Structures
1.
Amino acid sequence: MADVTDRVEEHFRLFNEAVRTRDWAAFLATFAPDAVMRFEGVPAGPYEGLDRIARAYAEQPPSDTMRCVSDARDDDHDVVRFAWDAGGGGTLQVG
């Protein structure tokens, strides 16, 4: 299994490429069929299941790329602090 830094770098690489190309297929292929995407402080989601997540990206795709500020492993999750390239940031958990 890849370490947290490798997983995070790949996640960001695929996400940023999808933002630039508007082709979400490779990024979404990394999600499990029963994945859940939740946001805090954002009026979106939660999205339950890969089909719903894919629909959300198709209907309201992000327009900004991001970069990793820090990453760590916490039990069964990768915890990642990130910064949007246009400003601002947040934390995401990938498990």
Note: The radius of gyration is 13 Å.
2.
Amino acid sequence: MSKTESRWQVPLADVVLGSEEIEAVAQVLKSGWLSMGPKTEEFEQRFAQFFGSKHAVAVANGTAALHLACEASGLKEGDEVLCPALSFVATANAILYTGARPVFIDITGPQNLNLSVADAAAKVTDSTRAIMVVHYGGYPCDMDGVRALAAKYGLKIIEDCAHAPGAVFHSPTGPRMVGTMGDVGCFSFFANKNLTTGEGGMVITDNDQLAESMRILRSHGMTTLTWDRHRGHSFSYDVVSRGYNYRLDEMRAALGMVQLRKVEAGNTKRREIILTYREKLKNLQFIEIPFLAAPEGSAHHLFPVLLQDGVRRADFMATLAGQGIQTSIHYPPIHRFSSYLSLLPLDHRLPVTEDVCSREVTLPLFPHMSEDQLWRVVQAVKNFS
């Protein structure tokens, strides 16, 4: 098996690719067809089947997935989209690409880092057209509340599922997989994700019109693809809309199919590690552990902790780094980035988000994390003073 090289004794995230992944990619290289083709089609079919979704559209990355979802949903200049500021910047950037404006929503609280449905409801205006939810760390948002809000105001729901492949939301009406409860679900296959192809992404939907629009938009607005013409299904094409080069290649599709078979087992291992973390760190007075009361069903992409007042985050992270343990921050709040300040009122505040973002540290988490690595992190945290 190949293992990611790292100077860290315990990296923040790590990927181990086995013989199945290597052979799958090797077969594509031997085939001589590298751009989007039969493997991508097969990956889309298997992904849709896994989620119980009617359509899956493979794309170049998670940001492309979000952008296509926004554009196919008809977002345009003058529209507003509700979204959290506690996310990677791609969430909001994808909205800006269409000319629409992100309206940032506060999170629920230190124990639930997902967006507050109550704050979202308070910020709906006549210009609001959609709500983009982020299932932070793999923990599902309150999708019952989101769906009720969307139904009340006629809003599109775009799910940013970059952290949450395989996560399940438990509703009184029954369990539903994350990504299938809105109009569109968007996934990232970046190198640190639960399902990785290095780069890559996927969009799922049950809406035939949205799916067709995204398929055309991902490849320059063309009505047929190179693979179609190679098979003799067409000899020319039309360009029916402004499109993009957001295609996924065959190597990543082949890799993704192998990774898809492993995602549930990987999520289970992540859960086991998080349960150990929680048990070993529960009595420490200087940290708070979010999502302790969250229902089952998380994909457990991240393990965030919140430092209590008086604990310097830089000192905490430096102490762990000195012991070979990598940590990170998820995330600096989007609404405080320089490029976003000019888009917002000077007094724009998200008090809960800002408090949490100032105290959050992400500890290492990956499925093949060894007992020794987990013990090293636990002891380093316990010994911090």
Note: The CA atoms of residues 147 and 182 lie 8 Å apart.
3.
Amino acid sequence: MNELQGNADRELVEALRRSRLFREYERVFGEATGLPLALRPLEYWQLAHRGKRNENPFCALLAENPKTLAVCLQAHEDMVRHTGDLPSTVTCPFGLTETAVPLKLGKKTIGYLRVGQVLRQSPHPSDTAKAGRTVTRTGAHFTPQIRRAWEKNPVLPSQRYDAIVRLLTFFAEQLSALSNQLLVRQQNQEPLVVAKARQYIEQHQGEQISLAHVASASGASVFHFCKIFHKSTGLRFTDYLGRVRVEAARTKLLNPNLRISEVAYDAGFQSLTQFNRTFRRVFGQSPSDFRARLRSGKRVPSVLPGK
């Protein structure tokens, strides 16, 4: 998936999350099951239920420690990677069940409904001991607080849990229908000049890009292009380009082997100072703070181009 399409899909999933349909379903779902429900795009760098009202206290404690958080993030990544056209249900290393239900736009998956953080049978003392060993192997401590939280994990029998997942597949179909409606609405609203400009910027974002080049590629004069582009996106050309570049850079920052300066220049920035300033303006934090917050399990802001 190219970056332009990835941004469009994330914007669409965000629009679905804000929709009345999802917000009402999320509320009723939580009241009926006591479980957290999340709708996330394909690329999401945090735990799906972090900070939600029905988040499992045991999982919340694990997320506070970078060592156990890393195990949870890896388990979530593995689950999503193996989710195809059908829901994928797995058991995490700590013994809890998690499920990802794909959200489709046509034949393409654009995101996932996420549910879980439950046991599917009453825990045996041996299960508690196994969870404790897993925590210890990460280098963390299975403290009395974590043990108590583990022992209070919600239990849902397999039959009931599977029924909940089936209900979510029906809801995913409703969201897919809504996503098609939103997409058509967006396409009808965006002028062709702006669509061409977005495509050109996506293809050349790591290169030297001038306003004149983009205007020419979109088939408009500089004056006409600036007027239409700002009206459609709410951003000046330079601000939009900066946001596209920091979005691309943020993905690369997930690789700890890349220096921040390497990421900045690869994204098309001419100086580290310019990169830091733009990143902070868009995300409200520096690139180094972003990496630190990712390791600590705190929420990372998401600001998409055009928003």
Note: The chain is about 60% helix and 10% strand.
4.
Amino acid sequence: MPRKPGHAQGHPERPRLIVGISGASGAIYGARLLELLVPLPVETHLVMSRSAELTLALETDLKPADLQARADVVHKIGDLAASISSGSFPTLGMIVAPCSIRSMAEIATGATTTLLTRAADVTLKERRRLVLLVRETPLHTGHLRTMTALSEMGAVIAPPVPAFYARPQSLAEMIDQTLGRVLDLFSLEAGGVKRWGEPSAEKDRRPRSKPRRGEV
């Protein structure tokens, strides 16, 4: 369910988490992430690129307003004076879902041109957790070197790779498993994650016996 109106006020008593959505394919990751965060005890700050709005329209039936309604605070992509552009504004960190190669490159070099990449750069310099759901394949050497540089700076590179051991029955389950593991990095529990070695996962991995003759 969407959050109540009042985005501009914020709730400083709750830890803040920045959600960036860039123009890479996979806008549903950012959209679903915001939905999963609604009931959790965090204040979400959304910044969405113009390319992300286009991708959202191409890949889903959602509109930018739908995503904005799920966030506590919404920032314009060109507002470089926004609170999240300063290290003095405390946050848990930032998730960019999905993260385009262009955004990744800007973050890696520090030559940021939008609020999204500026906020990510600030997250790095303040030694806060930055998680990038880089969405591209195949990757050439330049991409890989950029990822290495970001990893060395402290970022977590987390391509949205499906976990087939969880035996997902739908695309929605695959998305939730990925995002649940991302939220684990912030010690946030959204539910729905099938974990290796836990009873539910063990049950899913048990061989299924064939029905006997006469059984339905």
Note: The radius of gyration is 19 Å.
